[in-house]
Amino acid sequence: MLQRAVDRPSIERVQPLQLSVVIPTLNEAGNVEALLGKLGVTLAGIEWEAIFVDDGSSDGTPELLTRIAQSDRRVRVIRRIGRRGLSSAVVEGALATTTPIIAVIDADLQHDERILPDLYRAIAEDAHELAIGTRYAGQGSTGEWDDRRLKVSRIATALASPIMKTRLSDPMSGFFAVRRDVLLEAAPSLSNVGYKILLDLVASAPRPLKVAEVGYTFGTRVAGESKLDEMVALEYIELLLDKTLGRFVPVKLVQFGAIGMLGVGIHLALLWLALNLIAAPFAWAQAGAVVGAMTFNFALNNIFTYRDRKLTGLNWVRGLISFYAVCSLGAVANVGIGSLVYEQMQGWWIAGIAGAIVGSVWNYVASSWLTWTR
Ligand code: GDD
Ligand code: MN
């Protein structure tokens, strides 16, 4: 017995950590100190640590956190460079922990940290696997939200219900605690797009989870500003699509195809304008419309479909040229396959569609490889 104690490497003996609190930050310098103060008060009696995951804040947040972490052992900081995304930040922070229970809370003090001990105990003592802070049950409320934001949140929540394996009153909440092994089990299936990590989690877990809900009132932001913009709705739809269609077709292909359809509209509009406004010869008008439509498709795919590897400056020009090249080959494939099908079946529209599909899939595969290289 004595012998074993002597042989052991000298690891300092401390109380084992019980809870990791993952906190995503993007320009939250005005909030993190206050949050840590509040966590210290509310989590007294629990062995906890805070893991901040910062995505390149420009307001001094990571520097401030680094300074705090140097004198406070409970604080750790993960800095990500060149990447953005609330969900993926949370997952990365959670995977960097070793505690049996992981909580997630916003840095901006809008989540009421005083329910954290309840969330923790629901898992540690009551055998739940997941415990969420909810604004739509028990004592919960959305605080000072206007009608518009309430409506949007309701619609988003309704849209989520088909993909949830676990019933939640507030799947939009980013405030929850989860058992570490449950998160790890779901991790390989997470979509990791956008903001809705809790929804992603209950949609990706292989089975319904045993869940507890604790009401809280959503606070008003005092310092800093919200990062939710127009893209958030799009990313939400992307998450829903990935969780449904995503098993069969890549969501990027669906987006690429939808933009392609818009491109057809642009093509026809440009053709009409060239023929009617400047009385261009048909071949010239058609050529101009093709270039216009390709440019339009490139620009839109760069903004939406390939937002995560967006090209700018000189790379934008290079990308456009490679996109023209890819699409030219796509057109050759389109005409070739179309003609082949037409010879076999004589159906002009089946041949047309077959050619268009093969051409588009080529454009998608080749451009994701050559134009929007990782
Ligand atoms: N690392 C990282 N990367 N953090 C981010 C990013 C990002 O790209 N975007 C936002 N954050 C951080 C913010 O700094 C903040 O701590 C937290 O994530 C929430 O961002 P807000 O911009 O304050 O969003 P919100 O208040 O509108 O949304 C919150 O409420 C929703 C409920 O209506 C979030 O908690 C959502 O998850 C929640 O669903
Ligand atoms: Mn917020």
UniProtKB/TrEMBL annotation:
Q: GtrA/DPMS transmembrane domain: which residues?
A: 255-372
Q: Single GO cellular component annotation?
A: membrane
TM region(s), chain numbering: 253-275, 281-300, 321-342, 348-372
The record's section on Pfam families has: Glycos_transf_2, GtrA_DPMS_TM
Keyword annotations for this protein, in alphabetical order, are: Glycosyltransferase, Membrane, Transferase, Transmembrane, Transmembrane helix
Q: Which residues form the Glycosyltransferase 2-like domain?
A: 20-183
Q: Which domain of life is it from?
A: Bacteria
Task: Give compartment(s).
Answer: Membrane
One Gene Ontology MF term: dolichyl-phosphate beta-D-mannosyltransferase activity
How the protein sits in the membrane?
Answer: Multi-pass membrane protein
The GO biological-process annotations, alphabetized, read as: glycolipid biosynthetic process; polysaccharide biosynthetic process
The similarity comment for this entry is: Belongs to the glycosyltransferase 2 family.
Q: This chain belongs to which protein, by name?
A: Glycosyltransferase family 2 protein
**Which lineage ranks, top first, belong to the organism behind this chain?**
Bacteria, Pseudomonadati, Pseudomonadota, Alphaproteobacteria, Sphingomonadales
